[in-house]
Amino acid sequence: TFNPSTAGTTAVTYSYTDANSCSNTITTNQVVNAKPVLTFTTTPVCEGSATINFTATPAGGTFSTGATFNPSTPGTTAVTYSYTDANSCLNTVTTNQVVNAKPNPTFTTTPVCEGSVAITFNGAPTGGVYSGTGISGATFSPTTPGSTLVTYTYTDANSCVNSVSATQVVNPKPLINLPDQTICPGGSTNLDAGLGFNSYVWAPGNVPAQVIPVNAAGTYTITVTDNNGCQNSDDVVVSVNSNLNIDLGPDKEICIGGSQTFTVNYSALGVIYTWLSGENTKTITATTGGTYHVDVVDPLGCSGSDDVVLTVNPLPQPILVDRKICEGQSYTFDGGNFSKYSWSSGEQTKTINKSVGGSYILTVTDAKNCVASDTANLVVNQNPVVNLGNDYSGCEGTNVIFDAGNTGSTYLWNTGASTQTINVTTTGSYSVLVTDANNCKGKDTANTNFIEVPQLEIGSDKEICEGETVDLNATVSPASSVVRWSTNETGLSINVSSAGKYIATASNGGICSAKDTLELFTHNKPKIFPMAEQTLCFLDTNATEITVESDGATFLWNNNATTSTISVAQGGTYSVDVFSAFGCKASESVVIHEKCESSLFVPNAFSPNEDGKNDVFYVEGVNIYDFELWIFDRWGEMIYHCQDMSQGWNGKRNNTMQEAQIDVYVWKINYKYWDDKEKGKPLKERVGTVTIIK
Fold first, then answer.
1. Which of 99, 179, 237, 289 is 20 to 30 A off residue 131, Cα-Cα?
2. What is the CA angle 134-135-139, rounded to 5?
């Protein structure tokens, strides 16, 4: 065994002795690779901070928690980094990732009253920072009622930050504002602080009441406290005066039809009011102009009086006049010279321009703020409807009557005519202005186009052969005319093939037209019957005849023969045109195939012993071309060659007198059959043996 506890190389020797006491050894190095050196550190973070991306060296290993870590929970987490190097050696390093808890600051506020002393906030733990509107350091001055959000931010020794917020409420002081009072000598009055407060204290005397009676001059101070505990004070000055200060207010102005209320500013139990106009109430309502006087006496002997003048102003007088206009016109209504304008149609201007019939009401206000209205009616008369009808397009020599209608009106045509109708015979534009009894006008325009009648010629009748076509050509005047044929084609020329009548219609503007007709006759082609194809060998047969069966009058073959039967001596395609008496042509063709059979025979032995029997080696064949023969001995030497199949080998070597020995000889033949020659095929090759016997 070997303990690889230290990196390095150790030589290990193995020794062995067999049964014959023979020994041998072998030595091998045991290599212990060093583990990889790892570096992995962490930094403490705060709870809730950003996700951590771990890094270590060398890179490429794995983290036990993954390469990212979410510090959402405070505490300590052991993180192990494992790395395997190129030698498959593994090493690990473990580091603690510390997540410090965020601090937990506390902070509260207490509602205060407007204008109270400055507040000093006390958050815990101490040492944090306050923020918010009106905050200076840790203090807040409650000068304005309302709510202020105050945030307390605290950073602990680990640089972890947390915040807490609270609302600082500043309640408004209660509103108290009492008027000063005047009393008669020996009289009294009640000072009332009003409802809605939680407590009341009058000074002097610290009287806890809402209402106190007073009968002496002086300054009386009321302090009220509301439900929030906020306080406010007001002073009431009480004066003693034997003359009542009666005030009916400033002089007033009203408009005709209006009214004005005057009220005495003094009231007490038993007071007597005497108006010059006869009333004896504290308040009167006046509708006529003049001076209004009142005398006031209370039971204690105090008295006073006052006068006020009421002026009644006349109403403004807007003047609107009814109007009539024609459709398409407008009228401007003028409201006159006033301070303000209000029309029933929404405008607030002096004038309005209208084109829609109806009633328009104007309300005006003058400099005295007096208001009056007037109404005007606007009548919109319809313009006469003039309709001369559609534009007219006709042939020269016709006429059209244009009628402006609206009987009883006056008429003015652009021709100078003043009648309701006019008769038109020439091309042009005709307009009329019609004026009715309301002086309203209408007009219309109509155009005329008198078209020249075209002249058309398409020629005489025509004849063609069956299957042929012919152009039909039209001559027309004026050149702008459109020619339409009975085939529904348009143009000066059409190409036709069917027998029948053909009608051309020329129109100039689509209204005026002329027609011409011709008839097309067709002649049948000659009947011709198919000719049978033939396959022949002209080496065996010198010629053959071809006959075309037809009812035609004349014949013309592609070899220039002019009879119905021709004689041919070679293969090919033979075509014939057959003509009728009218000259109509029909065509037919036939293919004559040429094919000759070929064969080749080669014997396998012969006996050149001059006995007259089988002395020559002949190659026999029918329809053989490009013949060539070679004969070789067993050593591959050529001993005979010829290119004429009628020649044979007589058994002599190279046409000498030297006889070839009895043996087996190799022959090779190149040749073509007749079909190969005709089709341009390459040479055939055959190889075999022949034996000389004697």
1. 99
2. 120
